[in-house]
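URGENT: need a sanity check before tomorrow's submission.

F., can you look over the Aspartokinase record below? I want to be sure the sequence and structure line up before it goes out.
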Amino acid sequence: MRVFKFGGASVKDADGVKNVVNVLKQTGHDNTIVVVSAMGKTTNAMEATVNAYFSDKSALVAAFQETIAYHDAILKDLFSNSNHEIFSKVKGLFDEVQGFLAWNKSPNYNFVYDQVVGYGELVSTTILNAYLNEVGIKSNWIDIRDFIKTNDSYRDVSVNWEKTQERVSKDIDKSKLNITQGFLGSDDNNFTTTLGREGSDYTAAILAYCLNADSVTIWKDVPGVLNADPRYFSETQLLNNISYREAIELAFYGASVIHPKTLQPLQQKEIPLHVKSFINPKDPGTTVGKGVGIEPKVPCFIVKKNQVLMKLSSLDFSFIVEDSISELFKLFHDHKMKVDLIQNSAISFSVCVDNRFGRLEDLLNLLKSRFKVVHHEGVSLYTIRHFDEKAIESLQNGHEVLLEQRGKETLQLVVK
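Structure tokens as predicted:
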């Protein structure tokens, strides 16, 4: 039993969908469950729809119609018969979104977000499943919301592993080629929940864990796990093998190829993770598994953009110690700030956070009542695993370094 995951870039257009079919033909598709993300930038487009719903309803129809038109163009490229049932199925899914927005009374942005945004995955998998059957590969569409059960902390849920394990192991037929959605789950009231952006990797790991899969393969538009993101670094190198421990370290610091939560369930059952190219599916890619370290051992660069650096100082020169630090972390938690770096002295505390839920202003107002606060928005956090002097120089050159933290294996720099 294998689990494959295809991201949005792999199904961004009709040619992408056809290529997924080609990958399945080359690799085989028996005893396989395929997890698929929303097509292209659909998640961003659905987010824009939610934002328009709350802030500018006059822009709502136009925002949503653009998404419908994008998928309709893909359908017309894939299916020559305009009367094919897939057209009405996709229209029905988009009608559900419009219906929800018409009757919804909840003012909770996160709840509405989860009910709307997840339709990107429902549509993409419906299209892929229909196309597979159209070209003679029998596949079975399943709704992942019936299997992955979570709490109701919308946009930031926790998986109920006991319920999920029971449903997945009991009701998914491992002998078939199954097509399902990444990113999604449901709560006890069967409302849709989401696992966080890039959560499709996590979906694949959850299914692999519950099904005792032989492996998970994440199909990307890069040859595997690279030592740096090619969008930001001109010279990159393929990592052939990475241990679970090293991969978890890289994911923790923000490596974008592997979702941070993905590795833990795989490591528990020693299920290998392959990261391969959907452009060249026969290439070896990267294997993450049981072992020691990283091969080849080269500096690995990770960057997180648009971070916030805050320096807090006590107003009365009192120490910032356990009780005040505990209170600070509660505030970060309550405002859904992901803490990426901390550094403290007797009377000051510096922290680099990800303002992913846009609650910085509220947090700053609370902090300023107790501390002297200096903050920098739009900074970048660079992390180098297995750093050397050349790697350090390459980042420091031309950047204003606001904060540096160095350990035995890891160097972190916050720069403007």
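My own read: The CA atoms of residues 170 and 314 lie 56 Å apart. The two ends are 47 Å apart (CA to CA). If you see anything odd, call me.
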